[in-house]
Amino acid sequence: MERVPILKIGDTLLVSIQIDMEDQVALQLQEDLAERIVATGCGGVIIDISALDIVDSFVGRTLATIASVSRVLDAETLVVGMRPAVAITLVELGLSLPGIRTALNVELGMEMLARDHGDSEPDDTAMQDGDDAAVSAP
Amino acid sequence: MALSSDEAGRFAELLKEREDEIVSTWAERVGSTLRGRLSTAELHRQTVDLHHAVQGALSDGLSELSDGAGGELRALLAELSGSRARQGFTATETAVSVFALKDAVLAALDHAGDERPETLRDYVAFSSFVDQAALHTFDSFVRTREELIADQAEQLLELSTPVVRLWEGVVALPLVGTLDSARAQVVMERLLQTLVDTGSPYAIIDITGVPAVDTQVAQHILKTVVAARLMGADCIISGIRPQIAQTIVALGIEFGDIATKASLADALRHVLKLTGMKRQER
User: Fold this and answer.
1) A78 → chain B, closest CA residue
2) Architecture label for domain A6-132
3) Can you give the pTM of this predicted structure?
4) Quick one: angle between helices A84-92 and B215-231, nearest 10?
5) Using the beta-carbon criterion (under 8 Å), do A115 and B278 form an inter-chain contact?
6) Which of A92, A97, B106, B125 has the fewest CB atoms inside 10 Å of its own CB, making it the most exposed?
């Protein structure tokens, strides 16, 4: 079975999904990522899905689970690079992926994580600022 | 009632013998309905072309216009009605160009002083042939008009949905005109694609030019905003006129946590404040 590589860059884990996201691959990624977060103690996870043509409801749910799991492990998860066609399809299906933060591309995602870390001392500011955090999911 | 090959042959003969007479009567009839909007020379040339095509088709023993022998005539009629449609002539004026052939032929028969009873039968058959030709002209006319309308609708769609870059990392989408499903789809795709291309995390949707906001339009806008959020960009809706605000409330449309501003300037100020705050924080 194919695996998705997980790269560590500074305090961030970068996952770039370049293969078709089958259910098994998604579940394996979820496990691998939890282990890597614990092993490295990274504070941020960026999942790049710019190569994905299809995001079905299962993958969407797995992404949400990954976000929740990493939050428990004190790491912020960002999903970046979603294609317009994928976004439109998800909206038409009524899947708005609640609980997942998103950014346009990896660069903006890194910036967003850096910003979160910069002001994370009084921990809750990002929440209270509402729409300040570029996209706090509804 | 189809033309027999004998009849077709006789008419081909008649058309050939009295070409000048028929063409001039025909062109005159057509010219009187077009009222000088087409030059006499041009009209005469078209009429002569048609005359030759009809005569050629008849001498080939054509009985129905849809036959193989009628190919040239059909193409000529389609071309004629296409050019009339583009020049803005009405359907009647276009069809008369063909129907006038009947009058011209009748006048020619009168002139010849042919009193035989078969002539009437021949003429009725020929008349139905001309009717077919006119119907074909009419079909081509409608087809050309429909193509024109489709082209214009497409151009309108392209014209009316520009996405402009307003500031570093801010794009604006000034919506003008009514949003139906087809347009909303185009608008949504174009906005999202621009977000990806420019890497802008903010989009302002300005609805100043939208005459009315009903639940369907609101639904389209909301979908666009949610899709942009999924991709990691935030949308602000601006240009909400007082009446529209009242309609939105009366219809019970909820924009939720989507920022709404009265004018584009307010929306831009809002975005700049957000990005400015981020700069300071960094």
Assistant:
1) B232
2) 2-Layer Sandwich (3.30)
3) 0.63
4) 130
5) yes
6) A92
Residue among A90, A119, A132 minimizing CB distance to B230: A90
Q: Chain B residue closest to A114 (CA)?
A: B282
Ramachandran region, residue A108 (left: φ > 0; alpha: ψ -120 to 50; beta: rest): alpha
Judged by a CB distance cut-off of 8 A, whether residue B78 touches chain A is no
Mind spelling out the 3-state secondary structure of chain A?
CCCCCEEEECCEEEEECCCCCCHHHHHHHHHHHHHHHHHHCCCEEEEECCCCCCCCHHHHHHHHHHHHHHHHCCCEEEEECCCHHHHHHHHHCCCCCCCCEEECCHHHHHHHHHHHHHCCCCCCHHHHCHHHCCCCCC
- Picking from A132, A137, A76, the residue whose alpha carbon sits closest to that of residue A101 is A137
- Residues B126-145 have pLDDT tens digits of 888 888 888 888 888 899 88
B174-193 tens-digit pLDDT:
988 888 888 888 888 889 99
Residue-range domain boundaries for chain A: 6-132
**pLDDT of the residue at A129:** 44
Q: What is the ipTM of this complex?
A: 0.73
The string of pLDDT tens digits covering residues A51-102 is 998 888 888 889 989 999 998 998 999 999 999 999 998 888 888 888 889 9
What pLDDT, on the 0 to 100 scale, is given for residue B268? 93
Which chain A residues have a beta carbon less than 8 Å from that of B257?
130-131, 138
